[in-house]
Every structure is written in structure tokens, then in C-alpha cells.
């Protein structure tokens, strides 16, 4: 067989190169559609028996080798040329506990938008029910409001059988235990919730879940609270000066002719020049409820609600506006 001339060899190589480029261009166009089904035909690809490999007799790198070298569904789910950082999606079973339904709704929307790996298994407005649900469900993460009627967030944590879960407290700047939360390295976010703060808190919670050190941190927090727990106080100006009163000892605030009368658990009262609106602002993050334009009651001192809308307190009673009754029941029950 005669040896081919150099010019013929060059022409053949040039033609081969054009064919190679044409096939590569075709593959580039077909590849996005082809990769949608790559998981179904991975066996044939690895064996080099793909129909695309038989398009030409030109000596080419097998398509299966090229795909295994270039395409990785974890780093590039669509186009092989893109390098996308990928982290394994771990489902985080989550519970939200807050006595305000609107607060739960807002937080839930943010979590669903920002964290697809978070699975909200339950939301609760009643702290007593939350204890039972947490014990039964054993979640990975709990968002816990600090200030709730009857039991606060720390009381709930203390009564859980085994607090072996990550917790993010939803708190206010004025919460008395904020320093204890920081000291115990527990996550917290401040109302109104900022997206960046939420992202940071959840990111840290995910690290703690993986490190499995949630139980130790929670027990450390409870120890700190046991040593430093004091009831938050409020400064009440009166004719004789300023009185510092534990909020737990206040049954209600009642507006009287532009002044405010404060009723205490020892059956005494104080008269302050502050308006009822001023006190409502001062205790907005505590367990008080504006049941009427003239009355602000401590939810922890409510004994009952009559059919005609009268709130029975440990000492005395006050009316509850019709448009406030359902909200009151939601805060307590």
C-alpha cells in the first residue's frame, strides 16, 4: 500500500479537525437537554456505548470520559463549565414557639424564603403545650420567644425533659436575661427580626447541630439563669419620687383622667403622672395586654373571662373590648 503524500495527510488532518469542531459544537448544543436524563443513562455513559460516541470514526476522547472528567452534578447541575459551590442539604426539623400568631407567621415566611433545608414541623402559641410537643417531637432547632404569659421561654427550656436541641431565642433589647444568653453562647434574634441577624443565627445553629454540643450550651444557660434570675423592674414616677417595681408584682395599669393607677399584688396601688399609653410602650415586650383603651393587664394574673367580657384578675376585674377578646384568648390559650 503506497504511503500517502504529505499534502494529502495535511488535508486529511484539516478535514478531521473541522469534523471534530463540528461534532463538539453539536454536543455543546445538545448537552443541556442530554444531561437532564444523564442519571438514567449513567451506565451506558460509563461503558462508552453512548450513541454520540459512534457519530464519527475520528479518534476522539470518548464522551463518557469527557463527561466524567468535566461534568459533576454536585458542582454543576446544568452547565459543565460553571463551578458552583454545593453543600449537602441537611433537613433541620424546627419548632416555633411564640404567643403572638402574627410573629410566628412573619418568622415562618422568612425561614421558608431563606432556608429551604429548614422543615417547620410545628408552631405553638401556648408555652405549656410547647413543652409536650418538644418532648415528643425532639426537634433539631427551636425558635423560642422569651416573653410569654404563664411560662416564659426560659421556663419552657427548663421543663423540657432533655433540651438536646439547638435554640434561638426571639427577644427584645430590654429582656433581662440577654447577658445570660450571650454568656452561654446561645443564639438569639431581636424583634423586629432582621434578615442578616437571622441568617447569622441559623448559620451558627447549624454548626452547633453538627458539633452536637447543644445540650451542654442549654444546661449552661439554665445554670446562668439560676444564678442571675431577677424579675425585670419598671421605674414609676410618683409625687414622692421614683418607685422601682417588679413587673411580676403589677396586676394592672388603669388610666384615670390622664394619670395612671398601678395595682399591685400586695393590694396596694400607686398613682403616676405617666399616661396609660406611656406605660403601654414601656411594657410592650412583657406579659401585658391592652384589653381596653383604659386598662393594661398582666396576663399572669388573669383568672377568667366572663361571657359579657369581664376579665377576672387575682384582685379586682376590668372590662375587655369586644374586638380584643379573641386576641386575649389567643395570648393565653
Short overview:
The chain is built from 11 helices and 15 strands.
Description:
This protein is α/β, with parallel strands linked by helices and 333 residues long. The protein folds into 3 domains: 6-70, no CATH class; 92-228, Response regulator (Rossmann fold, 3-Layer(aba) Sandwich); 233-332, LytTr DNA-binding domain (OB fold (Dihydrolipoamide Acetyltransferase, E2P), Beta Barrel). Helix content is 39%, strand content 23%. It is built from 11 helices and 15 strands. It has helices at residues 6-36, 42-47, 63-70, 101-114, 127-137, 153-159, 178-183, 195-211, 214-228, 276-282, 325-332; strands at residues 92-97, 118-124, 141-145, 166-171, 187-190, 233-238, 241-246, 250-256, 259-264, 269-272, 288-292, 295-298, 302-305, 310-313, 317-319. It has a 5-stranded parallel sheet with strand order 2-1-3-4-5, with helices on both faces. The protein has a 5-stranded antiparallel sheet with strand order 10-9-8-12-11, with helices on one face. The chain is elongated. The N and C termini lie far apart (98 Å). Residues 6-11 and 38-89 have low confidence and may be disordered.
